[in-house]
Amino acid sequence: MSIKDIRIFGDPVLTKRADEVKEFDKEIRQLVQDLTDTMLDAPGVGLAAPQLGVALRVFTYCVEEDQPGHLINPVLTLSQDEQEGDEGCLSVPGLAFNTKRAFGVVAKGKNMYGEDIVIEGSELLARCIQHETDHLDGILFIDRLDTETRKLAMKAIREAEWFGMDKPTFKKSPHETFGLSL
Ligand code: ZN
Q1: Which residues of 102-135 are buried (b: 16+ CB within 10 A; e: fewer)?
Q2: What is the pLDDT of residue 174?
Q3: What is the pTM of this model?
Q4: Virtual CA dihedral for 62, 67, 73, 74, nearest 10 degrees?
Q5: Does residue 82 sit within a domain?
Q6: Between 167 and 128, where is the model more confident?
Q7: For residue 105, what are the domain limits?
Q8: What is the domain count for the chain?
Q9: Residue 46 Cα, ligand 1 centroid: separation in angstroms?
Q10: Would 37 be classed as within a structural domain?
């Protein structure tokens, strides 16, 4: 088990584009393990490498009772139909806002051995895959909110106890995550 600290809103690693993985070596397998352990401990539905301070295109997910999975260098095809619903983020602890997403997604990429894989999902899995892929592009879910909701979100963030903390010390969210933290 290796549980790492999760980077919080304000950390520059969360707003830059992560690099493609080119070598599928022992370090990548360790990164997938760290992401999985930290995600399950949080607990979260998904976790992207930049959230651990690693600027590589890797994320893990674990939706409902399924086994945890991972995807490297994802390329997404989104469905036309959309879904609404609350979404949260382990890097924006304790807050959730209605976020519009595509209802379904087909995600192509690699596993940790460099083999081609495809993940198809809808509803929460599709939301999770879109949220984590956004992290790899330096995009946070609050960037996806409509103008009014985004204003509310930014106000809530500024008032959050962790806002502006140099090094947030907690490992677990002090708040209920409602199973929505990604
Ligand atoms: Zn997130």
Answers
A1: bbbbebebbbbeeeebebebeebbbbbbbbbbbb
A2: 46
A3: 0.93
A4: -60
A5: yes
A6: 128
A7: 12-159
A8: 1
A9: 7
A10: yes
